[in-house]
Amino acid sequence: MSLGRAHSVAVSGVDGQIVEIEADIGRGLPGVHLVGLPDTALQESRDRVRAAVTNSGEKWPESRVILALSPATLPKVGSVYDVALSLAVLDAAEAVPHDRLEKSVVLGELALDGRIRQVRGILPAVLAAKNAGWQRVIVPESTLAEAGLVDGIEVLGTGSLRELVLWLRGDGVLTEPDPVAIAHSPAYGDLSEVVGQEEARWAVEVAAAGAHHLLLTGPPGIGKTMLAQRLPGLLPPLTESESLEVTAIHSLAGILPGGNPLITQAPFIAPHHTSTVSSLVGGGSGMARPGAVSRAHRGVLFLDECAELGTKVLEALRTPLEDGEVRIARRDGVARYPARFQLVLAANPCPCAPARETDCVCAPAARRRYLGKLSGPLIDRVDLRIRMRPMATGAFTTDVAESSEAVRARVSSARAMAAERWREFGWTTNGEVPGHVLRQRFRLPRSVIAPIEEALLRGRMTARGADRAIRVAWTVADLRGADSPNIEDVGGALNFRDRLSE
């Protein structure tokens, strides 16, 4: 009886766990038996692996082969284990030396002719191998740029099982990753292209400076989508750790570009208004895939025509807005995905959406019902609410408005002040700060927050709304370079709320 061993990674959400693959070649009728909670794709790998090994010029054992994946209680999903399974069998048959294999984590799917194909989730898998203390990871050659984003671990790429076997025997060389090339994210236009709408432009600037959520309402064609698309251009570049977070999520979703996989700019995700709950927060059979809220992590989630979305879809946003992550339970386990995004909602004031409000033909009940899909608890989580009005007659003849570059400079300065203030707590923006910290350790004078207390006393605002208004006030103060908000900043923050009824 011969025993072989190889290692791979099981990815669940953005977390990964090392999987030990053992191969036992014993007596009995020829056959391959796979144990360790494999899913359907992994069960089918028995035939792929056997064909790939044979077509790579190696001999498959003519006896009973048992393949065990440990930990046995962890569900194994997908075809990422194919290459490791084949190497475990070859190791048990003493067809390859064990010294290099025992120090390597192997990832990839096998084609029948022995080619190694790419799989999703390479980046989180490599990160998991590094965090587990492994020295080397071997990935499909087509994913080498993605795997090479991780420092502190040797990354090698191979295009075929034959090439990998020769390397294990000391007769070949595997490909190393090239230096990381920074890719520029697509531009969505400049803020100077938006005509008029000074109040809405100011709201977008405040939203960018403090990572606040934003609601824009107004007739069609007034510029709601243009403003939302220009918000990512006002945000600072992602830090190194944030870039890896975002890139790992996009890797799991299978939407990373091939040549320059590292995402350095805030993503902009705009799902269609017919999206389902699963497409928004994540889902699918087996192990849940990341949804739009996770793909928008550290960026902007834009829901155009939000009043056309289903009520259940909108209500599903409440938990990620508060927690900054989603946990999705499916048959093969619970997947955890980060979802710290800025929400931008855009809606028409009524179903008929005329250019002039006086031309509206909707009944009063229909108007109330249209925006009534946005429930009170959801709207309460939106910090800035702007009702956009038709442009004045001379809007097209005025001077060009400020560019995104000029506004970005103020946003970067305000974010730097906020990051310095919250450094000891680990927060970087005002939008992340819990309400109790603002009310206790950073309590404002009573004379400054008097308008908020009056709104609470009259029942015009909830306690959550009061906390969010204070966050906005801190952001307004940061934009003007002040150490703390004054009563005018608080008044400006309150002015951004309760706009739906105007």
TrEMBL record:
Matches recorded under Pfam families: ChlI, Mg_chelatase, Mg_chelatase_C
UniProt cross-references to SMART domains, sorted A to Z: AAA
Record GO terms (molecular function): ATP binding
Endpoints of the signal sequence: none
Domain AAA+ ATPase: 210-392
NCBIfam families for the chain: YifB family Mg chelatase-like AAA ATPase
Full protein name: YifB family Mg chelatase-like AAA ATPase
Organism the protein comes from: Antrihabitans cavernicola
